[in-house]
Write a structure and sequence with these properties.
5 helices; elongated; three-stranded antiparallel β-sheet; DNA-binding; homodimer; Arc Repressor Mutant, subunit A; alpha+beta
Chain lengths: 88, 88
DNA sequence: ACTATTGTTCGACAATCGTTAAATTACAAC
DNA sequence: GTTGTAATTTAACGATTGTCGAACAATAGT
């Protein structure tokens, strides 16, 4: 497992973003209203989440919509559980 | 979920350490043989893993033995899965 | 007591990270 | 065209992080 994924999860704002996306697809603008950060900072965080494929991106006009990548979350979860000793 | 846990997982050497402990309890000295890092660096990493309760510690004489904390791994896995949209 | 082994603590250093201000791009409405 | 909104890019900053060498502490064996 690439450590980049865990680095992406190692930030309060990014975890909040994932929490917001857990309620469904959302635009960058709406996400921004729920966080006390600037627009460039949000753009940076979204790029980090994209780079590890934790989120999907869809552009429509001037808006950018984001949604969770559930299969990636499954992948991470399975890796974590896989660390546990197999009763050997 | 505290981001400190994901920070603890955001390092190649620490992931390798967890992988080693997945095969069972191990001493710091044995872990060290499997990594190309110095003793102080290993000590640092073990402290990070302890601080987020990912590992258990047991001292015996001059040796320190480490083992995985399975329930903490469960906790992380459940958090990850909990991010997924509840089909709403 | 002396030596060897195991492990921690303390500085110090280079690299990375989160953040912002400023400038830039892209699209929509007028 | 101009204006306004949405989003990215760049450069710079302070803070955090991984690493090591050096010194230190604790236990074991001679």
């Amino acid at each position: 497992m690439d450590t980049e994924i865990f680095k992406a999860l190692s930030d309060d704002n990014r975890l909040r973003i994932l929490g917001i996306l857990g309620s469904g697809e959302s635009s960058a603008c709406e996400i921004l209203k729920n966080l006390n950060i600037s627009q460039p900072t949000l753009s940076h965080h979204m790029k980090v989440l994209q780079s590890v494929e934790l989120i999907n991106v869809r552009k429509s006009g001037q808006w950018t919509y984001y949604s969770l990548n559930g299969s990636k979350l499954d992948e991470i979860s399975e890796f974590i559980i896989g660390l546990k000793p197999s009763k050997a």
